[in-house]
Amino acid sequence: MSAEMQKYIDEAERVLLHTYNRYQVVFDRGEGVYLYDMDGKKYLDFVSGIAVFALGYHNEAYNDALKSQIDKIIHTSNYYYNAPAIEAAKKLKAVSGMDRVFFTNSGAEAVEGAVKTARKYAYLKDGSTDHEIIAMNHSFHGRTMGALSVTGNPHYREAFEPMIGNIRFADLNDFDSVMAHVTDKTCAILFETVQGEGGIYPATEEFMRKVRALCDERDILMMLDEIQCGMGRTGAMFAWQRYGIRPDVMTTAKALGCGVPVGAFLMTEKVGANSLVAGDHGTTYGGNPLACAAVCEVIDLFEKQDVLANVERVGAYLERRLDEVASKFPRVLERRGVGLMQGLVFDGPVGGIIGRAMEKGLVLINAGTDILRFVPSLVIEERHVDDMVEILCECISETEGEWQ
Ligand SMILES: *Cc1c(COP(=O)(O)O)cnc(C)c1O
C-alpha cells in the first residue's frame, strides 16, 4: 500500500467515530463493475456499496441527469412542490403498483415512516395507543430507534434499550409463530421479502400468502421491507411482485437512488387515506429535487437498459456457478437466494476469505459471520461471474483449515 493511502487510513482512525471495522483500502473511483483504489489497483466489485450501485459506476446518463439538476436547483422544501419529486413518485407508483409515496433520506427512515403509518392507522380505528407490531427474528431494518426496535437481532439492540414498545418477534416462514403473537392489538406484520443482513432468507410463497390472508381478515397492515431485495435485485422490480400479492405498506432505499441518499415508504390508497395527515410526519431533505432527479433517471435507465432481464439471466447463471462452488467445497453448506441476491453458507467465519479476495482484487461481503453475500451491480455479466468464481475458489482453497 502507498504511503498516501496509509496516511488517509491512519487519519480516518483519528477523525471518524469508530463504528466500522473497515477494510484497509481507500476507494477512489469506479467504472462499470470495477472499483479502483487510490493506488490505482483494480477490483471486481460484487458488493456495489451493499446493493446500492445497481447501474454500475460512472454511468454517464445517470451522472448527466444529476449534473443538470445540480445546475437548476438542489433543494427547496417540502412546503413547496418540485417537479422531480412528482415525476419520481409517478414512476415509483407505476413500477410498484402502490398508490402513495413519501420520500425519505435513508432506509431506516423509511422504516420509521412505515411504523408510524401502522400506529396511526390503528389509532384512527379505535383511539387506543397500545397497538403491537409483529416483526421477524434475524431481520434487519436499520439503526435508528424505531427501525432498531423492529430489528430481530438482540445484539444490535441490547445497549440501546429501552426500544419502542409493543414489538413481538416471530420467525420468517413459520406462520404458526406469527399466529402465536397475533392479538386484537396487532396493527402490522413487518418483514423483508428476502432477509438480507440476517443471511439471505427468501420468504416462501406459502408464508406470503398466509400472512396476506391473515392481514386481510383482521385489517392488519402487511408491511414489506424491500430496501435491499427491491429495485430489481430478484428479477422483479420489487421482490413481492413475484408472489402475486400486494403489501399495504412497503419500504425501499439502497438502489432507489443508486448512490444518492434517498429512500421511500409507499402505501395503498386505503392506508394513505386513513393514516398520516399534514403535521404527522415530515423531513427537511426527503424528496428534494436532486435526490428525486436520481430516482427518475434510475427508473428510466432500468427500462432503457432492460435491467430486469439482465438480472433474470445473469442471476440464474450466478446461481448455477455458486451451486458448483458449493458442491466442490465441503466447507460450503448451502447456497441460498434469488436473482442477484445470493448467499453461500459456510461452516465457519468467512472473514478470511473476504480478506484474501480483497488482496486478489475481488470485493465481497458477509451477511452474518458465516455467510458470503453476493449483491453485485445489476448490470453485471456472465464473464464477471466467471472471473469472480475463479478468484473465490482460489480463496476458499487457500484459507482451508484457517478456523479449524
Ligand atoms: C440497509 C437496510 C436498511 C437500512 O437502510 P439505511 O439506508 O442503512 O438506513 C433497512 N432494511 C433493510 C432490509 C436493509 O437492507
Summarize the structure.
40% of the residues lie in helices and 18% in strands. It has helices spanning 3-15, 48-51, 60-72, 83-96, 107-126, 145-149, 154-157, 175-179, 205-218, 269-273, 289-304, 307-328, 351-359, 382-398, and strands at residues 27-31, 34-37, 42-45, 100-104, 132-136, 167-170, 186-192, 194-195, 201-202, 221-225, 249-252, 263-267, 332-338, 341-346, 362-363, 365-366, 371-374. The mean pLDDT is 97.
Description of the structure:
The chain has 14 helices and 17 strands. With 404 residues, the protein is α/β, with parallel strands linked by helices. The strands form four sheets. A seven-stranded mixed β-sheet has the order 4-12-11-10-7-5-6, with helices on both faces. It has a four-stranded mixed β-sheet with strand order 1-2-3-15. It has a four-stranded antiparallel β-sheet with strand order 13-14-17-16, covered by helices on one side. The longest helix is centred in the last third of the chain and has 22 residues, at 307-328. Pyridoxal-5'-phosphate is lined by residues 106-108, 111, 140-142, 192, 196-197, 225, 227-228, 253-254.
The kinds of small molecule bound in this structure are: pyridoxal-5'-phosphate
Number of helices: 14
Could you tell me how far the N terminus lies from the C terminus, measured between alpha carbons in angstroms?
30 Å
Q: How would you sum up the global shape?
A: globular
Major beta-sheet overview: 7 strands, mixed
Low-confidence stretches: none
Mean pLDDT metric: 97
Radius of gyration, CA atoms, in whole angstroms: 21 Å
Helix percent band = 25-40%
Q: Widest sheet: strand order? A: 4-12-11-10-7-5-6
What is the strand tally? 17
* Category from helices, strands and their pairing: alpha/beta
Question: How large a portion of the residues is in β-strands, by DSSP E?
Answer: 15-25%
